Amino acid sequence: MRLPFFVYGTLLPGEVNHDLFLRGCTEAEEPARLNGAVLYDGPGYPYAVEERGGVVYGQLVTAMPEMYEELLVALDRLEEYTSGDPRNLYERVEREVIREGEDTAVRAWVYVAAPAVAARLRARGKLIESGDWRVG
């Protein structure tokens, strides 16, 4: 399934990985939010942790069709995600994301903290209360 990606950290416009991975590969990038998650500082990059009542702000990124498979592989590599690997730092999951301004729900890929990482962050991580990594 060719879903758009919801990005909330170093892949946001103006951040280092946006230019390295997304420039020239997208046909749309628009403000969006993920309900049911909170952000923790990595440090240096954030983790979205699924949690009822939270909200994470970011961008909904739609890849150009001819770049989709290459971008999916590149983002999985960046996030050190391998399907089914218990050592993953992130898991790539399908979630509903809300387009800002329209309040339209869209299914998207989201990289969220893997279960062991999420447990560690909940126990002693630094919560980003605004839900926006760039604001803090």
UniProtKB/TrEMBL annotation:
CDD domains recorded: GGCT_like
Domain Gamma-glutamylcyclotransferase AIG2-like residue range list: 5-134
Superkingdom of the organism of origin: Bacteria
InterPro entries, per database record: AIG2-like_dom, GGCT-like, GGCT-like_sf
Pfam families reported in the protein's UniProt record: GGACT (PF06094)
Listed name of the protein: Gamma-glutamylcyclotransferase
